[in-house]
Recover the amino acids of this structure.
């Protein structure tokens, strides 16, 4: 299940979202050559990645922020930037550029901190924007639960795009992260499920005051959980591959 776009247009240009995407891409390109040498890459991570045991010993704060802009592979980067591009513009539109940037950094910090708390003496580097982007997704869930999201379903050789409500797509994603937290060991590396779940929860909590100020449950009843702008519609294009009719022998 891979989200590829939503049907929720924004009213202003998502400047901060695009800047964040650009920074993540440029940082990845800048240290991409280091992946050929594990020792040099390890020293680089020692300086900029979130390594829990170093935070415990030296009381470091900066890695909670610098680690948000590092990624372990091209696919790691591409997946994160896809999610940020889909969900970030609408949250930036709602919060404004400055508050959105603070929101993003705060969600990323909470995500990194909870990942650290789950394994404070782990020596495995934690990198990625996933926690901050999970916060964006948590905020999106509360603001636009009934926005339509197009999902690419891949099952072996079966490919299909379906449109489902944002609440369903995001809740499935969040539940998977909770199962990941329960079924994995934060000390053994792999996916930082705790960071994902904590970032998502932090994003939802930070958006709650906006919902409350706009009437709480009445706000959802008034908007029906839908975006404030007309839903974007995408035309289905016919394939250029010609069809061939089979003839009877």
């Amino acid at each position: 299940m891979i989200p590829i776009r939503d049907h929720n247009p924004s009213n202003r240009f998502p400047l901060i979202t695009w800047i964040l995407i650009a920074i993540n891409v440029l940082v990845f390109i800048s240290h991409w050559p280091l992946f050929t040498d594990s020792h040099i890459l390890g020293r680089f991570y020692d300086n900029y990645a979130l390594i829990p045991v170093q935070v415990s010993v030296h009381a470091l704060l900066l890695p909670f922020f610098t680690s948000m802009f590092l990624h372990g592979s091209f696919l790691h980067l591409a997946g994160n930037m896809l999610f940020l591009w889909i969900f970030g513009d609408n949250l930036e539109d709602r919060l404004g550029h400055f508050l959105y940037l603070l929101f993003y950094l705060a969600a990323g910090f909470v995500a990194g901190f909870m990942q650290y708390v789950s394994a404070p003496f782990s020596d495995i580097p934690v990198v990625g924007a996933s926690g901050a982007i999970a916060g964006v997704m948590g905020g999106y869930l509360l603001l636009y639960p009934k926005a339509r999201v197009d999902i690419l379903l891949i099952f072996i050789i079966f490919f299909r795009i379906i449109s489902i409500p944002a609440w369903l797509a995001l809740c499935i994603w969040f539940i998977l992260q909770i199962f990941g937290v329960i079924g994995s060991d934060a000390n053994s590396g792999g996916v930082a499920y705790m960071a994902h779940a904590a970032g998502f929860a932090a994003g939802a909590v930070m958006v709650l005051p906006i919902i409350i100020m706009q009437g709480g449950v009445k706000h959802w009843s008034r908007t029906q959980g839908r975006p404030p702008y007309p839903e974007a519609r995408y035309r289905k294009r016919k394939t250029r591959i010609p069809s061939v009719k089979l003839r009877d022998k």
